[in-house]
Amino acid sequence: MSDDLTVPHLETLFRKLPREGNLPELVTQRVRLDTQDGRVFLAFARAGQGSLGFAGWEAVPGMTGEPEVTFYILAAEHPGDPLQIISREGPQGVLAGAVLEDRPPTDVG
Fold first, then answer.
1. What phi and psi values does residue 15 have, to the nearest 5 degrees?
2. In DSSP terms, which residues pair with 33 in a beta bridge?
3. What CA–CA distance (Å, rounded) separates 20 from 45?
4. What phi, psi does 7 have (nearest 5°)?
5. How confident is the model at residue 11, as a pLDDT?
6. Which end of the chain is more exposed for a tag (fewer CB within 10 A), N or C?
7. 3-class secondary-structure state, position 26
8. Are 56 and 42 spatial neighbours (Cβ–Cβ below 8 Å)?
9. Average pLDDT of the chain?
């Protein structure tokens, strides 16, 4: 996992992903995001207007992905706070690690 959780570094990782709607099922790489409480989120496409918005799903052991894609952003609640993964349901966890990884060919988004 990357220890560099700065916005510029995360933007660089996300720029390697296609924009949402550009055939994400053909993507060969994804960004794996881990939270401090052990949850894993897989980002496979950039989404929204900001540089830290993404389309993805939460990884569950034994599961490659769900047909229902969720949209997330990485943001801090207040200036100086750690980055969190946030969905429309609210904060999902404080970001603890991020890495670009190969996407197994069996994963279908």
1. -65, -20
2. 41, 98
3. 5
4. -60, -45
5. 93
6. N
7. helix
8. yes
9. 83
For residue 51, give the nearest of 77, 14, 95 by alpha carbon: 14
Residue 86 contacts residue 53 (beta carbons within 8 Å): no
User: Residue 63 half-sphere exposure, CB side, CA atoms within 13 Å?
Assistant: 12
Question: Whole-angstrom Cα distance, residue 23 to residue 63?
Answer: 21
- pLDDT, position 108: 47
More reliable by pLDDT, 28 or 71? 71
CA 17 from centroid of its chain's CA atoms: 10
**What's the N-to-C CA distance of the chain in angstroms?**
23
The pLDDT tens digits of the residues spanning 33-76 come to 999 999 999 998 899 888 899 988 887 655 555 556 789 999 99
* Residue-level length of the chain: 109
